[in-house]
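Folded chain entry —
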Amino acid sequence: MTILFSLSILTMCMLWYLYYNQKKMLESYRANALDAFSSHEDMKETLRIGLYNRFKRDLEQQNEEDPLLFEHFVADIMTSVRGGNTYVTRSSGDFGIDIEEQADRGLYLGQVKCYNDQNLVGFAPIAIVHSQMMKQSAVGGYVVTTSKFTSNAYTYAKGLNIELIDGNQLVELWLQHLEVKRESIAGLNPVPQT
């Protein structure tokens, strides 16, 4: 009887030990997974590169359906996240402006650049947007890229009311846009309460 009791105690201890180790391993896995997704930096970088590849492919193939897919993509995001109405200009004769955004505060002008990491955006697009802001009495502007900006671009943009949106910031705006769309759809199809 004592041997059977001892074996029962030993089995229970062993089961408890296995349960504890599995629980500890699962908690560790969850913590690491949450840490990996809490910063989102790797995910944002992957999405940024994916955006470049997606829209660059369309530009290289001269998509006959819509050669301005990237411009429309950015315009939709700006409308969703910032409000107002956006208009994508035609591909030629636009004087360097890709997007016109009419907001409560006035007209904003935007230029977009689908560039890779080796092609940083310099000050030239900022100068073009600023020139058109002066000509059209716009209250602000922005330059959006899938890449990054040079330090000269940031220096040049200071005080001009031109926002520089790099690839990672574009991904953040895109994620906000998707959340707005999700909330909008959820509002149309409310979940019945039980």
User: Anything to note?
Assistant: The longest helix spans residues 2-39.
